[in-house]
Amino acid sequence: MEQDDVTIREQNFHSQVREYIICFLLFAVLYIVSYCIITRYKRKSDDHEDEDAVVNRISLYLCTFTLSVSGGAVFLLPFSIISNEILLSFPKNYYIQWLNGSLIHGLWNLVSLFSNLCLFVLMPFAYFFLESEGFAGSKKGIKARILETFVMLFLLALLILGIVWVASALIDNDAASMESLYDLWEFYLPYLYSCISLMGGLLLLMCTPVGLSRMFTVMGQLLVKPTILEDLDEQIYCIHLQEEALQRRLNGSSSHTYTRGSFAHQLNKELDNIRNQRNKLERRKKASGWEKNLLYPIVMLSLLTGTTISVLMVALNILYLLVDETAMPKGSTDRGIGNTSLSTFGVAQAVLEIILMFYLMVSSVVGFYSLRVFQGLTPRKDDTTMTTIIGCCVSILVLSSALPVMSRTLGITRFDLLGDFGRFNWLGNFYIVFSYNMLFAVVTTLCLVRKFTSAVREELLKALGLDKLQLSNSPTDPESGKLSANGHQKTL
């Protein structure tokens, strides 16, 4: 018996060490990728080791940690689904015994813990640390800025706890709820994270339909469109003429000292736009036939198929909600990892669910930066301030943390939420879940109908050559930068 006890303790010890090593390696990879992404967009600063440089470096490390946690939240649900299917397909395989329920549960709890830590501690600390200068009358330096940051964090924590306490007292006025108001760890943090998850779900509800329709425009800008009834040589020739005319006007204006600087700046801006148009036309001309005539239609059909399948799965989930109580996110019980498949068609449906999750996440990020309210947070290569990077990291963290909840709420997957991700009070409310599904299906359908009707109209006009007639009869169009019928761009 003693030898058996020692063997069991050794197995538990080795399994825990193995899980720690796996979690560390996964997080290290995410951290390195996140650091490369942030340094690509971060504004380049001087090499002087002054106080602001140290503060920026600390904030950079905190933002990198937050972005890596966001990546973990995005990959967590697909990793759990594919792990479940692998364990079902190879239950006795020795080389995948490390892929067990304890590892999956530990990853969910770690991501949930780090999400709370980044959202409520690290990111507010990074922002206040950047904006701090030290209290008036104190000696300037890093210590003074850290002291001011901790004071601001303490006041912010009191404010948030007070708001949550008042809101909880107003919503639940019974004796049990009043007693739980004084429980910080078991009540405040889960309730606060539940509110953040609900806000993230609402943000995804706004961003994802817009992003699904915006994805067609983004891919259209990245790929080369097919040439239908277009003469690229003529357009390039007209662009060259227009570029030469603008260059002559710019050279003539520079010879006059009385010319205003704003006029020269406007000419330079128009010249840059013309050169960008010429580069795009030359890229379309040099593109191969398969890239123009095969790749673009395949990508567009893939986007349309993914969006259509997502809407159909949400529509089916609405029917399930009306007839089956177990369709609720809290209606099913935890079946464990590797016991039963939660996909009707096995591995094929699991792969489809994973693809749809990544597609929805990318669409939500694209839709987030497409909204006019959040366009100021759009990162620019080598020209993004640390304050903007903090805002981007917080936004992506909220979106990624709400992605598993949204996927389960919309019926994209039947995988039960593990760890603290599943302990949300609003997931058990039928009216909230049903309204969420209805709004997603209706808004996504409306965005797609509007997108395709306008896109089809523009392509038909372009194919028939009527877009030039419209441009020649219309006033200036500085954003499109298209050519009029006589080959000249309309300018003020």
Q: What would you call the shape? A: globular
User: End-to-end span in angstroms?
Assistant: 92 Å
Radius of gyration: 28 Å
| Structure annotation, total helices | 13
Helix content: over 70%
- Which strand-content bin applies to the residues? under 5%
Mean pLDDT: 75
Low-confidence parts: 470-492
Order of helices and strands: HHHHHHHHHHHHH
Structural class: mainly alpha
- Give the biggest beta sheet: none
By DSSP, the count of extended strands is 0
Q: Summary?
A:
The chain is mainly α. It is built from 13 helices and no strands.
Structure description:
By secondary structure, this protein is mainly alpha-helical. It is built from 13 helices and no strands. It has helices at residues 2-41, 51-89, 101-131, 142-171, 175-180, 184-222, 232-254, 261-286, 289-323, 347-370, 386-409, 430-464, 466-473. The relative contact order is 0.12. Residues 470-492 have low confidence and may be disordered.
